[in-house]
Amino acid sequence: MQKFLKIFKIPDLRNKVLMVLLWLFVFRLLAAIPVPGINPQQLQSLFEGQQGGILSLFNMFSGGALSRFTVFALGIMPYISASI
Predict the structure, then answer these.
(1) Phi, psi at residue 63, to the nearest 5°?
(2) What pTM, to 2 d.p., does this model score?
(3) Is residue 66 a contact partner of residue 58, using CB atoms and an 8 Å limit?
(4) Centroid of chain to Cα 41
(5) Residues whose CB falls within 8 Å of the CB of residue 50, separated by 6 or more in sequence, listed in order
(6) How many CB atoms lie under 10 A from the CB of residue 68?
């Protein structure tokens, strides 16, 4: 436990750990905000009909954000597509 607390005594390391925790918090917050204009009942029925398929695999890798169709559900793919 003392080695873990030493992290917070070194200013550079403390700043890096706090920055990672901040970004994790921001990501989890935005992963809970659904995209406006989506019908949640139809989205739920889509995922129920595709159990065990490729859609379930994508949902697993997104941490369940795809089934809730959240702001961060697509990750960086829209930015990559837009830059192409």
Answers:
(1) 75, 25
(2) 0.59
(3) yes
(4) 21
(5) 56
(6) 21
Q: Hey, what are 57's tokens?
A: 């695999």
- How would you class 20 by CB atoms within 10 Å of its CB: exposed for 0-12, middle for 13-18, buried for 19 or more? exposed
HEC states along 13-70? HHHHHHHHHHHHHHHHHHCCCECCCCCHHHHHHHHHHCCCCHHHHHHHHCCCHHHHCE
Q: DSSP label at 9?
A: G
Secondary structure element (H or E) that encloses residue 80, with its range: helix 77-83
The two structure tokens encoding residue 71: 């702001």
Helix axes 54-61, 40-49, angle to 10 degrees: 120
- pLDDT tens digit string along 28-67? 888 788 888 888 888 888 888 878 888 888 777 777 777 7
